[in-house]
Write a structure and sequence with these properties.
The structure holds 2 protein chains of 2 kinds. Helix content of chain A is 68%, strand content 9%. By secondary structure, chain A is mainly alpha-helical. The longest helix of chain A has 26 residues, at 111-136. The chains are: A mainly alpha, B mainly alpha.
Chain lengths: 137, 540
């Protein structure tokens, strides 16, 4: 797609979209959002980049192959599911720790966040596999 | 280690194998080794699960420590563990076979990750105790099987896949509709909880409607009359390894779901539902075998026989006695092993002649005598010749029929059995006995597989034939396992109590309470992981 407007706009949109995808991902912890929609927005950003430049450039921006993203996301989610087994809790039980640091105050961290990160990677990977193979045809 | 960890492993192992295969996408050799390693691990985890279920009767896992009926429950009872075990055996055999037969292009497109995705769906469907979760596993299976069916993109494959996907989507829609109605009617989707609520459901008409929706949904997956058309239209098109795993496992997930639904959920109106199932069973047997007789291609014949044999499995369910149901379970065990094997053997014949048409092949008895013996044993077992596994399966079903004096279905079963023998003889006479046709002999490229390739081709077949003969020789112990599974199925209270341990206390029903107190000395000791029953999560 050769559009000057889009190619210029993507320079500004690209970081914004990626930032908002991280925002959506973190927001999903307690409010609407999460790994799925965050991943979609991230893959939207890279898809736009692939459309305005070319697929090879988008692959360079992504650095890893989308398939690696799918695989590592699945593994991460699975590991979060299996982690509680080590301390005798059932599969997929959330494990939580509270960190108190001077800069951030009290932070409530847990395996569901990592699970969601896995979902984020899988969604990004799967949609980019689709987009790339369609654009390359 | 808590025993209920074993319940998650048959789902986690295929998932992990698939994820690691995706990371090793570039290396075809790595994908093959990973596929094999994953299948071995699944096999052992299934064996461990079976051993634990034999010890503890029912294993329950409340995922995420959300107590039933609020969370997702995974349940492994005897039938589930048998099914998972069979899935492990079939996966191992087919993986070995596919090492030699699946071309590198298909491996490059992700054959092995997809096979494991399929197995994750299959094992998940066998182990879940939640209707919506079952739907999700069905979808996982459907997606994986659709890609496997079309992988390679040959013309025939796409044609078969369209029929396959269209009919399976309709069945999924029926399933989803049924789930919606059942949730609106009862407010729960946990199977144990549903079983309790459906027993005392005021409107019997609604329950019957629901039962019929489930017959359509699961019946399509199981390929029963009159919903089986997708199966013979698609199973002969993909590579043999894919056909074999489909033939062995996919329809059996439908049968398993029917058995689960009609022993646990819909048992209030036996006179209607189970008589209907009996009618369907009879018609499925007969139409399947008649269809097979009209075919002249190995895999098409075998596909129609799958349909016909689904009828036998339903027959035991419909008769609804411990003996008949044990016959069904025995039949499933026998069928999965034999049917997978016949597809694999047919595949070797097709590989040699480049065609599965009976008119274009022949002379295998002379050119491949070992294959002839292996085929003969499997085919005779399928037809039910003693002392092979099929004989005992059919014998048990017939005895179950005699017990309940349902003579029509017995006659149907026996006649169909005879016709199965006829059609197995047809394959024998055409593919093995008659000399190879001139043009085929002339054009034979004399395919030379490497030594390792030949081992990968024949080892799974020898393994499965050994199991078939083993089931025949050790019919007593296998029967005992099947009977125990059947008895457990006919005692839904044990299942319900295992999933909902605090149900009786909550109900405060004095009669049931009294019964519970009696039961305590012989407590089945279900290993549940949820701590104190009244507490929800303590974190957050």
């Amino acid at each position: 797609m050769d559009s000057v407007i889009l190619r210029t706009a993507i320079r500004f949109l690209f970081p914004l979209l990626l930032l908002s995808s991280v925002f959506l991902f973190l927001r999903g912890h307690n409010e609407p959002g999460g790994g799925f929609v965050g991943g979609l927005v991230a893959s939207g950003a890279i898809a736009l980049y692939a459309m305005t430049h070319d697929v090879a450039a988008a692959r360079r921006v992504l650095r890893v192959s989308p398939r690696v993203l799918i695989g590592s996301g699945l593994l991460l989610a699975l590991c979060c599911g299996l982690a509680p087994l080590a301390i005798g809790r059932p599969f997929l039980t959330g494990l939580w720790i509270n960190i108190t640091s001077s800069g951030l105050g009290k932070v409530h961290l847990g395996t569901p966040l990592l699970f969601d990160l896995g979902v984020y990677c899988v969604v990004t990977g799967v949609s980019l596999v689709f987009v790339f193979s369609l654009l390359e045809e | 280690m808590n025993p209920s960890i074993a319940v998650i492993l048959p789902i986690a192992i295929p998932l992990a194998t698939m994820a690691i295969s995706l990371l090793a996408w570039k290396s075809i050799a790595a994908q093959k080794w990973l596929g094999l390693a994953g299948s071995v691990l699944l096999f052992f985890s299934a064996a461990a699960l079976m051993w634990l279920v034999d010890r503890d009767e029912i294993l329950v896992l409340q995922v995420g420590r959300w107590p039933a009926p609020f969370g997702i429950t995974l349940v492994a009872d005897r039938l589930s563990s048998i099914m998972v075990m069979l899935a492990g055996v079939v996966l191992f055999a087919v993986t070995l076979y596919s090492l030699a037969t699946i071309d590198d292009r298909r491996v490059d497109y992700g054959f092995f990750p997809l096979i494991h995705l399929l197995l994750m769906g299959v094992c998940g469907a066998f182990l879940t105790g939640d209707l919506f979760n079952l739907y999700v596993w069905f979808e996982v299976m459907l997606i994986a099987s659709f890609v496997l069916l079309t992988l390679g993109g040959e013309r025939g494959q796409l044609e078969g896949a369209i029929k396959y996907v269209a009919l399976n989507l309709i069945s999924s829609a029926a399933f989803l509709a049924a789930i919606g109605v059942i949730y609106a009617a009862t407010g729960t989707l946990n199977m144990a909880d549903l079983a309790v609520k459906l027993r005392s459901f005021p409107d019997e008409g609604i329950v019957t409607v629901l039962a019929m929706l489930f017959v359509i949904a699961f019946g399509t997956k199981a390929a029963v009359f009159p919903l089986f058309f997708w199966l013979p239209a698609s199973y002969h098109t993909p590579p043999v390894a894919v056909s074999a795993i489909f033939a062995g496992l996919l329809t059996k997930v439908g049968v398993y779901s029917l058995i689960r639904a009609f022993t646990l959920l819909f048992v209030t109106d036996l006179a209607f539902t189970h008589n209907l199932l009996l009618l369907i069973a009879g018609l499925t047997m007969v139409t399947g075998v008649l269809g097979a007789m009209a075919q002249s291609e190995i895999r098409r014949i075998l596909s129609f026989h799958i349909v016909s044999q689904i009828g036998y499995m339903l027959m035991g369910l419909a008769l609804f006695t411990p003996l008949a149901l044990a016959g069904s379970v025995f039949y499933i065990i026998h069928h999965i092993v034999v049917k997978t094997n016949l597809f694999l053997i047919g595949g070797i014949a097709e590989r040699r002649f480049g065609s599965g048409r009976l008119s274009e092949i022949g002379g295998l008895q002379r050119s491949m005598p070992v294959l002839a013996i292996l085929f003969f044993l499997s085919a005779m077992s399928l037809a039910g010749i003693p002392p092979l596994s099929g004989f005992f399966a059919k014998l048990t079903l017939v005895r179950g029929g005699l017990e309940t004096e349902r003579y029509a279905i017995i006659i149907a079963a026996l006649v169909v059995s005879l016709m199965t023998l006829f059609s197995m003889t047809k394959i024998w006479a055409e593919a093995f006995w008659k000399p190879a046709p001139q043009e085929a002999r002339a054009s034979l490229p004399a395919r030379h597989d490497s030594r390792r390739g030949r081992i990968a081709l024949f080892a799974p077949i020898v393994l499965l034939v050994t199991i078939t003969v083993g089931i025949g020789v050790l019919a007593g112990p296998v029967m005992k396992v099947s009977y125990a599974a059947a008895e457990q199925l006919l005692d839904p209270d044990a299942y319900i109590d295992a999933v909902l341990p605090d149900r009786l206390a909550a109900e405060g029903d004095l009669d049931r309470q009294g019964k519970l107190n009696e039961q305590i000395p012989t407590n089945r000791n279900p290993s549940t992981l949820n701590g104190p029953p009244t507490s929800l999560r303590d974190e957050d």
